[in-house]
Specification:
It is a single chain. The protein has 231 residues and is mainly alpha-helical. A three-stranded antiparallel β-sheet has the order 1-3-2. Helix 4 runs antiparallel to helix 10. The chain is elongated and about 55 Å long. The termini are far apart.
């Protein structure tokens, strides 16, 4: 049973992150059970786990749906992220080890390499970006901050943000990563906090413009095979 629930969790989570299951879409247990090849019980267990992670929402008498947020909710989440992660970056500037800063520098280089690759991999970029941000949170040495940030991260949104950026904006994002590393190397907390806040608020603007039907000039989707987008 445990293995079946783990399989159901992995399949459903991948479907949410890839966009196979749209925001707000109802997730029917019987259909998911057929798709995964398990009974409804492990599917239900997987949905409960995804609900705890914020990827799924249960509604009374209506079952589970993929989490969906209004523009105002997203704006509030990004504002909160900017405040929390900015504070984390400030703490990390005085608490991160040389090894941790070196790892961040390596992650920044690897992210740029992914976006320059002919076979742009949005999943890999998402993974590396997540590791970069969480490495800074861990380096803050504040476990309460870690828990708070996990509560406001929107994983599907983070994944799809990388499909919304024009090349110039993508380069600006990489520049923020490099500058964050420089601020940590200089042990300058105010600098690190300012860059992190700017970085997250810039992503907020891109996402909100996209939701409102506005795209940056020259924007190209990953699926088009043209210039890849990311955040």
């Amino acid at each position: 049973m445990a293995r079946a629930a783990e399989t159901a969790y992995a399949v459903i989570r991948a479907g949410i992150l890839s966009g196979e299951f749209e925001r707000g879409e109802r997730l029917r247990e019987e259909e998911l059970a057929v798709k995964v090849g398990v009974s409804r019980t492990p599917v239900r267990e997987a949905l409960r786990r995804l609900d705890a992670e914020g990827l799924v929402q249960f509604q009374p008498n209506r079952g589970a749906r993929v989490s969906a947020r209004s523009a105002q909710e997203l704006e509030d989440l990004y504002d909160l992220r900017a405040m929390l992660e900015g504070y984390g970056a400030r703490l990390a500037a005085s608490r991160a080890s040389d090894a941790e800063i070196s790892e961040l520098a390596d992650l920044a280089v690897r992210m740029e390499a992914v976006t320059k690759s002919a076979s742009f991999d949005v999943d890999e970029l998402t993974r590396l970006n997540g590791e970069f941000h969480w490495s800074i949170v861990r380096a803050s040495r504040n476990s309460q901050l870690d828990a708070l940030i996990r509560g406001v991260i929107d994983v599907p949104l983070a994944h799809h943000t990388f499909e919304r950026y024009e090349p110039e904006r993508l380069q600006a994002s990489h520049s923020h990563h490099r500058e964050l590393v420089s601020a940590l190397q200089a042990h300058d907390g105010q600098w690190a906090e300012a860059v992190m806040r700017s970085h997250i608020l810039a992503a907020r603007t891109t996402v909100l413009n996209s939701l409102q039907g506005h795209s940056d000039p020259g924007t190209a989707r990953v699926a088009s095979g043209k210039d890849p987008q990311a955040s």
